[in-house]
Predict the structure.
Amino acid sequence: MKDLYVDGVWSDAESHSDVLNPATGQVIEQVAEAGREEVDAAVRAARKAFDEGPWRRTTATERGELLRRTADLLVRDREELARTESLDTGKTLGEGRIDIDDVTNVFRYYADLAGKDAGRLVDAGSATVVSRIVHEPVGVCALIAPWNYPLLQMSWKVAPALAAGNTVVLKPSEVTPLTTIKLVALLEEAGTPPGVVNLLLGPGHVGAAMVEHPAVDLVSFTGGYATGEKIMTAAAKGVRRVALELGGKNPNVVFADADYDTALDYALMAAFVHSGQVCSAGARLIIQDGIHDRFVADLAARADRIRVGDGLDPGTETGPLVSAQHRAKVEGYIKTAIEEGATLRAGGSRPEGARYESGFFLRPTVFSGCTRDMAIVREEVFGPVVTVERFTEEVDAIALANDTEYGLAGAVWTSDASRAQRVAGALRHGTVWINDYHPYLPQAEWGGFGRSGIGRELGPSGLAEYQESKHVYQNIDPVPQHWFKG
């Protein structure tokens, strides 16, 4: 097997790891696993390609054309990629198709944006001075993506990094590497020069070696808070740049005047799409007193009817968790929540039946009677679990929604337009939806406050993360100033 891609060459490695289908627990593929030598070779190849190769001298238009060709190849291979993403992550095939379409849109957005940033002129206060701010690539970028949206999250990094003119070393999660391997093959087919894109596979120690390598100029990581802290510490040596998206504990606030049926439907989607394995999942439902009891009862009844199954089954509405280890972690939170006094209203257990025995399934779970001191309310569970808190006044809703160390996303449901704007303005979260949940746009920045990370992906700021600003000051008609008389 040749799964590592370094300096334009596909290669094998001494170590290998299994990739499992979460719906069956069966091995679907074996992939190569990089060691320190492969990490060093990949970073050195990226360094040489940036410092000496033709890539740095390409125009923004040429880089945009490369991204556009890649987008066309993604369209060509949409069904294969969607099926692979479903097999690898457990999500439904429909979700997989949406992901590939979103990846395509990201590449097209940055293909268009690449040539539009011509810098700016600065008024130096002199007719004989031309002062310009230009943007240049950072250099070698280590891009580390998570397992829940492996191809989508990688596209958020690699598309702007290449658009800016950087060289990159990619590492997907060892749990879900398959579509990233395919993406690198498509980038190669699109005409990416050797050394510009390099691919490493393997567990955390591979990513750690990438981060610690002195030839890396920037690290972009999406994943857990604890790992993000370690990356910042490692990147401090040499003062390398970092961009971190570290998850969230996201409030979904429902006022009594909201459209009831729509808010209920979206609350289910916010919490249980991809079995809650979404950094922006609406895992904290905050409901106003007047509708609280009815809303919780209807939410629990609907949650119990969600069809759990294999993502490739057309009847499945939500799939398994990504691994047995992750399911055990989520089950630990459920057990603790019951011990701390939360009321289990739906789910909380594995579904019964022969077709569920070998996969990593867990029923959608609803807890009511939740308080802010409970672990399941404060910590990111990252599974099909929603907690319900209640409030009386608007000020209480804002206080509850902001009472978190995270600040990635949140939503407010109300028919009062003024209230919607007040609450959205008061929430300390990077994305706030009003009467909606989960949509994102390639042209709109994504990122969070607090423990949700630093930096932004997507939008113009997502390109700026991979650029250095340079001031070029030109004196057109210099004359002697006679600063010194000697």
Remarks:
- The longest strand covers residues 129-137.
- Residues 351 and 363 are 6 Å apart (CA to CA).
- The mean pLDDT is 96.
